[in-house]
């Protein structure tokens, strides 16, 4: 404004009339609630300034429509809530294995009374269902079948190359070998081709030996599924020795793995199937009694690397899973995975006992645990310090630890 002449400053008297009465609010008093939403009372009066002094006036002289509230909402701190539980129920069975349940309640830490469960939605909730054992049933003779008896949680079993020997045949992994009076011998003879097999109980089993023969003929069920598992770094090849499937009747054989999917019926004998990974599921569907196939499987070192160095493969019926230690020089690039494979007749339950993925307010899209149900390929993501219980629909699951 420098080029423009500045006008002279002037002071003029504007209005000497007294100001109209107005409402005056005193500071609010204490909050009515020690936590959560409450009300605080405040004093509202009608005053007027006369000769520089504040004079109390009657309320009707102040504008009624503008009168402030005499109580206002207040929050001192967020109320704390916590989960509480009833006692465990009796075991659901009088003998053998069963379950116990308990009820959960959301309690206010101030009143110690139940409130709406929505108040506890941010807090991890402990389990409300657990397994129990009432001891062996009277009709049982001898010990329970492997894996049927409840045991304390132990580190999950890792299948190593040493477990491939016949002296470790399914024992370490608590996967029962089919037992029975029949014996199947690999064509051409040889002790290495001899394995005990029960024609009626082969279905639903997991086979972990380096090689073997699986007889799926005359199993007595329409659908028969078996699984073969080996350590990471290996792959499985299967040869169909014999087949009596009736293709025109709709009988079929299905092979599935993490990286392959194949069906067939005609020209099966002597055909070769490669799993391309360390696990393979074989499912047979028959219509006519007595039909089926006889398989021979072998394992070998994988021709292509399909895993990462921090990946793990678990076959044990129970155990603990700890986030694998990632490689120091690849911490930001490698996603460590844990593969779980159990017998086809079994299902998988994963319970997070302790998780710490950082503060909830400091989460990123790259900081989470992903669990995948292999049979449906559905995935669930868990973040923060959430304790969760996840159950599979099939016998295979994958966990990815994203840093």
From TrEMBL:
<dbReference type="InterPro" id="IPR050439">
    <property type="entry name" value="ADAMTS_ADAMTS-like"/>
</dbReference>
<dbReference type="InterPro" id="IPR000884">
    <property type="entry name" value="TSP1_rpt"/>
</dbReference>
<dbReference type="InterPro" id="IPR035914">
    <property type="entry name" value="Sperma_CUB_dom_sf"/>
</dbReference>
<feature type="region of interest" description="Disordered">
    <location>
        <begin position="163"/>
        <end position="191"/>
    </location>
</feature>
<dbReference type="InterPro" id="IPR036383">
    <property type="entry name" value="TSP1_rpt_sf"/>
</dbReference>
<keyword id="KW-0964">Secreted</keyword>
<protein>
    <submittedName>
        <fullName>ATS13 metalloproteinase</fullName>
    </submittedName>
</protein>
<dbReference type="GO" id="GO:0005576">
    <property type="term" value="C:extracellular region"/>
</dbReference>
<dbReference type="Pfam" id="PF19030">
    <property type="entry name" value="TSP1_ADAMTS"/>
</dbReference>
């Amino acid at each position: 404004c420098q080029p423009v002449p500045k006008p002279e400053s002037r002071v003029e008297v504007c209005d000497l009339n007294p100001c109209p009465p107005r409402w005056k609010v005193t500071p609010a008093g204490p909050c009515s609630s020690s936590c959560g939403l409450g009300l605080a009372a405040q004093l509202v009066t009608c005053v007027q300034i006369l000769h520089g002094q504040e004079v109390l006036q009657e309320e009707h002289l102040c504008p009624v429509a503008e009168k402030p509230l005499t109580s206002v909402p207040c929050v001192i701190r967020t109320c704390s809530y916590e989960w509480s539980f009833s006692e465990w129920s009796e075991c659901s069975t009088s003998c053998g294995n069963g379950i116990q349940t308990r009820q959960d309640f959301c309690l206010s830490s101030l009143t110690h009374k139940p409130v709406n469960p929505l108040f506890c939605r941010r807090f991890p909730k402990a389990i409300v269902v657990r397994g129990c054992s009432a001891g062996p049933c009277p009709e049982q003779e001898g010990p329970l079948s492997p894996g049927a008896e409840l045991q304390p949680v132990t580190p999950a079993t890792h299948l190593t190359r040493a477990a491939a020997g016949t002296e470790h045949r399914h024992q370490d992994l608590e996967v029962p070998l089919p037992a029975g009076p029949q014996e199947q011998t690999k064509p051409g003879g040889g002790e290495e081709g001899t394995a005990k097999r029960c024609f009626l109980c082969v279905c639903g089993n997991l086979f972990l030996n380096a090689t073997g023969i699986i007889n799926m003929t005359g199993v007595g069920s329409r659908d028969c599924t078996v699984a073969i598992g080996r350590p990471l770094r290996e792959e499985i090849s299967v040869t169909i020795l014999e087949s009596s499937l009736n293709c025109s009747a709709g009988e079929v054989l299905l092979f599935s793995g993490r990286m392959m999917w194949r069906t067939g019926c005609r020209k099966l004998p002597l055909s070769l199937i490669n799993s391309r990974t360390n696990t393979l599921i074989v499912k047979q569907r028959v219509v006519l009694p007595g039909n089926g196939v006889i398989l021979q499987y072998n394992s070998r070192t994988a021709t292509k690397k399909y895993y990462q160095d921090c990946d793990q493969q678990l076959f044990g019926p129970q155990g603990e899973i700890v986030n694998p230690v990632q490689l120091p020089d690849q911490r930001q690039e490698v996603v460590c995975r844990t593969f779980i494979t159990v017998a086809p007749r079994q299902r998988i339950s994963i319970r997070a006992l302790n998780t710490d993925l950082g503060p909830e307010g400091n989460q990123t899209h790259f900081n989470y645990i992903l669990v995948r149900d292999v049979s449906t390929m559905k995935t669930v993501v868990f973040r923060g310090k959430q304790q969760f219980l996840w159950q599979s629909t099939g016998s295979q699951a994958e966990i990815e630890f994203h840093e």
